[in-house]
Design a protein that fits this description.
Layout lengths: L5 E5 L3 E6 L11 H15 L9 H5 L5 E6 L8 E10 L13 E7 L2 E5 L4 E12 L1 H4 L7 H28 L1 H7 L20 H15 L3 E7 L8 E8 L10 E9 L1 E9 L2 E8 L6 E10 L12 H11 L5 H13 L21 H10 L5 H13 L7
Parallel strand pairs: 1-10, 2-5, 4-7
Antiparallel strand pairs: 3-4, 5-7, 6-7, 8-13, 9-12, 10-13, 11-12
């Protein structure tokens, strides 16, 4: 049996959204922001996965989209002309998202109404999309696969805010009836852009799941219902590593983030991945996204093979001919000579008084050549890093 080590990467909760107010001052995007957007858009357009068609809003980057429709005879206006276009703008943190929350991006519907003496109402929508370079640009701390997934989810999310509103303009009779009775001083109903993410959340969750799968990982979505918590606090199993073959034979890199959660953490309990934390608003459900990607098996040092005496020790130990201490002397040799590299020992784990019995089976199979050096080292490395075997 090969066990795995667990590397947990904490991602600060991201927020993306729609803003429904007209900004008088347009901020030009920097050269870096333009390149970033172009590269990300190219990646998005190349995707071969199921997703909602957002070509309508994408076309508004190239030329204005004009939609015209007549009103009823009893309405205030006779005809409505909607003109929508989208530009990339320089990123600034919107006031409604300030306070420690990191904003991945925004899409802003910004429409002005004018009328003519002939009863024609014209809506000019000069919309903007903004992406946060601090979130989009890769960092050494974050797994590249998780970074790619998050970036594509962010741009898809923002384009959905544009497309959903565009769909309403094109086909919602309720929205059209409302606009047919607007005056230049009235507020426009932008609710179809889905600021509350009722439509967008399931779309982006399915999108993220496909992206993670395409990158070789597993996507987990957990809803934390208030009734499942104790005064808002929760401790919940996400999955067992044995439920997913791609996560069994290697270490795991885990990236996660939560919505309506405080002090969210992920831990590894025996075979299970577990989340814990508390709800910010105890009356509302929380949501946790978690990506789990396989990590390459640790390799033995190609310049120094494992000595035969260590394999002999493993065989004798599996037969209980030598003591645990004698066997661990061989493991210590592997560490001291750089054949086994220990990166991080789990501080919260208490070392066991006895080495788990399955390790004897692994040691016997290894000594007989039934499993590779890499597989054996992987199992022992996990035991040390997880704190099951003590090593100073």
């Amino acid at each position: 049996m090969i066990l795995l080590n667990l590397l947990i990467l904490l991602i600060v909760p991201l927020v993306s959204g729609s803003i429904d107010s007209f900004e008088d001052k347009f901020i030009d995007p920097s050269i870096e922001e333009q390149k970033m957007f172009k590269n990300l858009l190219e990646q998005f357009l190349k995707l071969d996965i199921d997703k909602k068609d957002v070509s309508g809003i994408l076309n508004t980057f190239e030329k204005p989209r004009i939609v015209t429709f007549p009103c009823n005879i009893e309405d205030v206006n006779d005809l409505v002309v909607n003109v929508a276009e989208t530009r990339l703008a320089g990123f600034t943190v919107p006031e409604e998202h300030e306070g420690g929350v990191i904003v991945g991006g925004t899409y802003s519907w910004q429409c002005k109404i004018t009328t003519s003496s002939k009863g024609i109402i014209t809506m000019d929508c000069d919309n903007t999309i903004k992406l946060n370079p601090d979130v989009i640009n890769p960092t050494e701390e974050k797994d590249q696969r998780s970074q790619k997934v998050d970036n594509l989810v962010i741009i898809y999310h923002e384009l959905l805010h544009g497309q959903l509103m565009l769909d309403a303009i094109s086909s919602s009779q309720e929205w059209r009836n409302d606009v047919c009775n607007k005056t230049p001083t009235d507020k426009i109903d932008y609710s179809y852009s889905d600021k509350q993410h009722i439509v967008i959340n399931p779309l982006q969750e399915e999108f993220a799941s496909q992206l993670v799968s395409k990158e070789g990982g597993v996507f987990f979505l957990e809803k934390i219902n208030p009734i499942e918590t104790e005064n808002g606090e929760f401790f919940k199993k996400i999955t067992s590593r044995f439920d997913h073959p791609q996560l069994v034979d290697s270490g795991i890199k885990v990236t996660y983030r939560g919505i309506n959660t405080n002090e969210l953490s992920v831990s590894f309990h025996q075979e299970d991945i577990v989340i814990s934390g508390s709800l910010k608003d105890k009356t509302k459900s929380g949501t946790v996204w978690l990506y789990a990607f396989p990590e390459d098996n640790p390799k033995t040092n190609s310049n120094q093979e494992i000595p035969q005496w260590i394999k002999n020790n493993a065989a004798w130990w599996s037969e209980e001919t030598i003591t645990d201490s004698d066997f661990l002397n061989g493991i210590e040799f592997l560490i001291q000579n750089g054949i086994m590299k220990i990166q991080k020992v789990e501080k919260n784990s208490e070392p066991s008084e006895e080495i788990p019995s399955w390790v004897r089976n692994n040691a016997e199979w290894w000594s007989l050549g039934l499993i590779s050096d890499e597989d054996f080292v992987s199992g022992i490395k996990y035991l040390i890093e997880a704190g099951i075997i003590a090593y100073q």
